[in-house]
Amino acid sequence: MRHRFHSICPYFAMFPEQFAKKWIERCTRPGDTVMDPFSGRGTAPFQAILMDRNGLGNDVNPVAYVLTGAKVGSPTRSSAERRLWRLEQGYNPEDFTSESATLPPFFGRAFHHTTLKQILYLRSVLSWSTSRVDRFITALALGSLHGEMTSAASYFSNQMPRTISTKPAYSLRFWQTKNLWPRQRNVFEVLRRKLAFRYESPRPSTQGKAYLSDVRALPRVAAAVKSSVDCIITSPPYLNVTNFEEDQWLRLWFLGGATEPTSSHYSKDNRHTRASDYWSFLHESWRALRPLLQRRSHFVCRISAINVAPDAIKDTLSDSMRFLADRWVLQEYTVSDLVRRQTGAFRPGSVGCRFELDFCFDLYQ
Ligand SMILES: C[S@@+](CC[C@H](N)C(=O)[O-])C[C@H]1O[C@@H](n2cnc3c(N)ncnc32)[C@H](O)[C@@H]1O
Q1: Average pLDDT, the chain
Q2: Residue 14: CB within 6 Å of ligand 1?
Q3: Contact 217, 22 (CB under 8 A)
Q4: What is the pLDDT of residues 214-264, one digit of tens each?
Q5: How many domains does the chain have?
Q6: Residue 107: domain span
Q7: CB–CB of 74/5 below 8 Å?
Q8: Candidates 9, 23, 38: which one to mutate for ligand 1, based on the most atoms within 8 Å of Cβ?
């Protein structure tokens, strides 16, 4: 059975666990260290600990940090159940009446008023940055915050996509045109059900580590990792494809962020839209990662871009390896057509990537 932690919450431009599994099998042995410095929902480090490797993840996005941390540092089922029960006992809807009334109109149409107060309560009490139990419950809440309004009552919101948070004005227009109203959800009940479902899979016996950092600050933040990484498995932001802050603004709000989409708040340096800026961002990232690598290591990367030919990406990425190692050999390079265009499907009006490129380099320091 697929481990049920994998799908706690969808994430934009995520790769499937089969991708991580294939490369962990090929490039590492039990006990080795696998790192994803742009970990997103944490698939690579989580798959690594499932395969008895040491799994490390990092991301600048707090949503990614919560998801990765929840998976590689999960609490026991009983401690999570106990915490959820205590949270429910401590809830008083009246405490959130005035806060819910002052939120922008989006929130009143996105959530039923009783659901919104429960969400506001959890938002105010969950200590996702310091407590592993709270981080796990927060991850479940992030995965439930918005999605389709099915009868299974899996999501708290009015009709929304699961992967990205649509912008307030677009969402309001959509709900008004379709005459859609949010249904009442008991947030505690949904979370209890999801907790039970996730723990149908055994909690991994090994635990990994998640960092919340700009990749270029990682050698400082993760000083203990120095010279220990055997394999990087990653997908950096795709060139000109998404702005994670805008596209995940509602989940970021749940983690304490602004009540509307922001850009350049979490990452001051969103240079993913112009090719030359993008490549210099990756050069800086590789330079920062280099001290973390073993003398012999592997670098596996899935990458894509809009309006750039695959061979041009291959040449530029291969050239960028000089920032990561003294010597490198390209072991494998594959191009796959994207059948389902994630960006086209989830971001109204956007143009999707047509292909994804997978690379595996052997690196020598
Ligand atoms: C393509 S996504 C990775 C998706 C991931 N492989 C998965 O399966 O979920 C790229 C990630 O890079 C992160 N990111 C962007 N700029 C960053 C930076 N400067 N430092 C660290 N992470 C960054 C984004 O937050 C995003 O999660």
Answers
A1: 92
A2: yes
A3: no
A4: 999 999 999 999 989 999 999 998 876 667 788 899 999 999 999 999 887
A5: 2
A6: 77-198
A7: yes
A8: 38
